Amino acid sequence: MSRVEFLPDVYEDLQRVVSHLEQHEAGHVQDRLGELVSASDVLTDNPLIGRPTRGDMRELVIGRGSRGYVALYRYVAAVDTVFVLGIRAQREAGYARDE
């Protein structure tokens, strides 16, 4: 079973998501945030389930439509750990730290 670690920048992404939901008066903000974080549990048993993207990174699609998000991650087999690098809404053009 792989370990999943969220890098510190991911917490900024989650704060951005919460702010957006609160700004648009979305219901059940905490429940939606919990769903978003718990969806990463699939990576403990299936670390390569996400779609391949640039380099050795992958994206896990979480939910769909207005409730859809994408988590960017890297699996390092040598330490059997998934490092979640960023989270964005599916409708966003890129990750907050993309250049």
Distance between the termini: 33 Å
Secondary structure tally: strands: 5
* Count of discrete domains: 1
Sheet of most strands: 5 strands, mixed
The Rg value, from CA coordinates, equals 13 Å
Structural class: alpha+beta
Question: What's this model, at a glance?
Answer:
The chain is of the alpha+beta class and 99 residues long. The protein has three helices and five strands, in the order βαααββββ.
Task: Please supply descriptive tags for the structure shown above.
YaeB-like fold, alpha+beta, five-stranded mixed sheet, 99 residues
Can you walk through the features of this model?
The structure is a single chain. The chain has helices at 8-23, 29-38, 42-45, and strands at residues 3-6, 51-52, 57-62, 69-76, 81-89. The protein has 99 residues and is of the alpha+beta class. It has a single domain (3-89), classed as RelE-like (YaeB-like fold). The chain has a five-stranded mixed β-sheet. The termini are far apart. The model has no long low-confidence stretch (mean pLDDT 85).
Task: Give a topology summary.
Elements (H helix, E strand, L loop, with lengths): L2 E4 L1 H16 L5 H10 L3 H4 L5 E2 L4 E6 L6 E8 L4 E9 L10
Parallel strand pairs: 1-5
Antiparallel strand pairs: 2-3, 3-4, 4-5
